[in-house]
Amino acid sequence: MNLVVPIIVVAIVLIFFAILFSFIPLGLWISALAANVKVGIFQLMGMRFRRVPPGLIVNCKIKSAKAGLEVSINLLEAHYLSGGNVDRVINALIAAERATIALKYEHAAAIDLAGRNVLEAVQMSVNPKVITTPKISAMAKNGIEVSSVARVTVRANIARLVGGAGEETIIARVGEGIVSTVGSSESHKDVLENPDLISKTVLEKGLDAGTAFEILSIDIADVDVGRNIGAQLQMDQAEADKRIAQAKAEERRVMAVAQEQEMQAYTQEMRARVIEAQAEVPKAMAQALREGKLGVMDYYTMQNIQADTDMRSSIAGGDEKNQPD
Q1: Alpha-carbon distances, residue 15 vs 3, 22, 256, 263, 286 (angstroms)
Q2: pLDDT for 37-61, tens place per residue?
Q3: Burial group, residue 191, by CB count within 10 angstroms (0-12, 13-18, 19+)
Q4: Euclidean distance between CA atoms 107 and 93, whole angstroms
């Protein structure tokens, strides 16, 4: 019975220290002291309660201190709680310090929170990046298509990383400059003979304004001659004019056919009226004979005149048929 109480007390003490050391990273605190970095025990406990990984913060603090950078633990915690990448920011600051690039912690943290890779930006400031544009097609004034591929050497402009445009804007502006330069050339041969003309013209336009990069050079990697777009456009225009002319001719033909059919209908109507009138002649003559207005001899005289007229008409019609074409 006398041994039970001390055992219970020892167990309680061990449990207490186990719980205490679970909140207090003692090994991390010793590592910070060995690196001459001042970190309080209660500060480490506060990181546990704030759900900030003490190992990440302390290691970044040790790394920055060894590099000669003064960054407080509170700033590191604030950046982590804001959703930033603390380790990448510290690595970027160390790289900038070694490359003699002026970069403050506040600016590096702002770049990281803006969604850009600040470490990659510092590395690109030291080692420029080459951006290859897709094949860009343009047409010279003589109607010949020219396709070219450009390689743009850029260096990160750290001062404009926050709010500056990215690589897509650089590619779009270079493409616009190539199209403008080729389009202002009198002949595609001018572009083939002097491809550096494109580079000079594009560089003079200051395409890196408002972007996160500084253009160092633009080199034309490939130039190809494409289709004769001018001739193709002329052929398409001629084909369109031909179809319009055919449509107008068809319209005139339809109108002529309609007029001819209308004339035929009118002629048939007139013939019908003539036949109807001719049918009334015998009736009128019979009526005149009954009423005594026309004598028998007058009737025979008129028949002889009619027969003589028919004979003359027959002879005249025969002569016209016998005439050569």
Answers
A1: 19, 11, 113, 121, 151
A2: 787 777 777 777 788 888 888 888 8
A3: buried
A4: 10
Residue 325: predicted pLDDT? 47
* Radius of gyration over every alpha carbon of the chain, rounded to an integer in angstroms: 52
Task: Write out the two tokens for 179.
Answer: 């199209």
d(CA 215, CA 201): 13
CB atoms inside a 10 Å sphere around CB 181: 21
Q: Is the entire prediction scored with pTM above 0.85? A: no
pLDDT at 23: 57
- DSSP code, position 137: E
Q: In the chain, which ranges are E strands?
A: 129-132, 136-139, 144-156, 213-228
Three-state SS for 211?
strand
- The C-alpha angle with vertex 263 and arms to 262 and 269, in degrees rounded to 5, equals 90
Ranges of the chain with pLDDT below 50: 320-322, 325
Cα distances (angstroms) measured from residue 260 to each of 20, 143, 270 = 114, 49, 15
CB-side exposure of 294: number of CA atoms within 13 Å? 15
User: How is residue 208 annotated by DSSP?
Assistant: T
243/235 Cα distance (integer angstroms): 12
Question: For residue 282, how many other CB atoms are within 10 A of its CB?
Answer: 9
Residues 181/200, Cβ–Cβ less than 8 Å: no
DSSP category for residue 293: S
Are 173 and 207 in contact by the 8 Å Cβ rule? The answer is: yes
